[in-house]
Specification:
Radius of gyration: 21 Å
Shape: globular
Strand content: under 5%
Number of strands: 2
CATH architecture: Orthogonal Bundle
CATH class: Mainly Alpha
Distance between the termini: 41 Å
Order of helices and strands: HHHEEHHHHHHHHHHHH
Structural class: mainly alpha
Strand order of the largest sheet: 1-2
Number of domains: 1
Length: 336
């Protein structure tokens, strides 16, 4: 507008959708790889949908993941992902550079993160609608994606609720992991692949397999989030503790005598590094770390046993190896 004193809006050389894709880049692409590998293992000459359709849906699953990451970062008030600014962080920094006050710039970044997630979500469903499958199969695919969206939203809200009240028991943590992580990151790719391959008989066992894989990944992530190498995970080992997240580590610790020393230090952004290091030592000493790792191993074994029953043992062992190969936090667990 002529005569306006409003500074020019920041230019990033990319749309919001492109910014979201760039910020979420660098992951292992576990979801699309799992979908395509499962399709290849199950499909045969008589499969109702060709691999080209599976490839489109693999992209859709990854775009759904991108949407969840963008929204999750806003919910958790995170400005970085994988050690670099996320969408909210990029846009907040641009607003600050334009002269906006810190609070306003933060709000601008959060708005960008939400909108980027919305765009990615719409793109995912557009890919499904135009994937090239038959009308009947496309309708079933949309149902699968819609169900995953609803389940993941419930899991996200449960996670926020537990972070507020900090009273989640282990069963609560596991159910939240199943809803927030396992359903869309593992169950959805497996079930989509089976549908495309014409293996409706595997829908229920693959749902159970996805649950076991997803919970195992989340439990491993709980440990990495507190005891991992920040240079590898891209995140300080104290961030989950500062945020007061109700991880399996916390749920186990709550049942021990160390809890009275741990509880006052959780969920405090102002707590110093020495105190948080003491919390990490207590989590180790009280057995919470070992219990969490043992539980993750049990879910991994369960996943392998289920995979053997449906002829996917080699594939699942490869997926589990991806989670352990570098110790990097996989953002399936921060949806995600």
């Amino acid at each position: 507008m002529e005569g306006s004193n409003e500074p020019a809006r920041p230019q990033h050389g990319a749309t919001l959708r492109e910014a979201a894709n760039e910020a979420s880049g660098g992951g292992k692409r576990v979801r699309p790889r799992l979908l395509l590998a499962t399709y290849d293992a199950l499909a045969g000459p008589g499969s109702p949908e060709p691999r080209e359709v599976a490839a489109v849906l693999a992209d859709a699953v990854e775009m759904l993941h991108t949407a969840f990451l963008a929204h999750d970062d806003v919910i958790d008030d995170d400005q970085t992902r994988r050690g670099r600014p996320n969408v909210a962080g990029v846009y907040a920094a641009s607003a600050r550079e334009s002269g906006a006050p810190a609070t306003a710039a933060h709000g601008y970044g959060a708005a960008a993160g939400l909108l980027a997630g919305d765009l990615a979500l719409a793109s995912a469903f557009r890919d499904v609608a135009l994937c090239g499958a038959t009308t009947a199969t496309t309708a079933r695919l949309l149902d699968l994606f819609d169900d995953s969206l609803l389940v993941t939203a419930e899991g996200e809200l449960r996670d926020v609720w537990h972070s507020i009240h900090r009273s989640a028991e282990l069963d609560d943590v596991l159910v939240t992991a199943e809803l927030k992580t396992a359903a869309y990151s593992f169950g959805l790719p497996l079930r989509v692949a089976a549908l495309l391959a014409g293996r409706d008989d595997l829908d229920e066992p693959l749902s159970r397999l996805g649950r076991s894989l997803g919970v195992a990944f989340q439990l491993r992530d709980d440990v990495l989030g507190t005891f991992g190498d920040p240079a590898v995970t891209g995140k300080p080992v104290t961030s989950d503790l500062r945020a007061g997240r109700c991880t399996a580590l916390v749920a186990f610790a709550r049942t021990t005598s160390a809890w009275t020393r741990i509880a006052p230090l959780l969920g405090r952004p102002d707590v110093d590094e020495d105190d948080l290091e003491r919390v990490r030592e207590l989590l180790e000493a009280c057995g919470a770390r070992q219990e969490t790792e043992d539980l993750a191993a049990r879910f991994e074994l369960e996943a392998v046993e289920l995979a053997e029953q449906v002829g996917l043992a080699e594939l699942v062992e490869h997926v589990l190896a991806l989670g352990d190969a570098s110790g990097r936090r996989d953002d399936a667990t921060r949806a995600a």
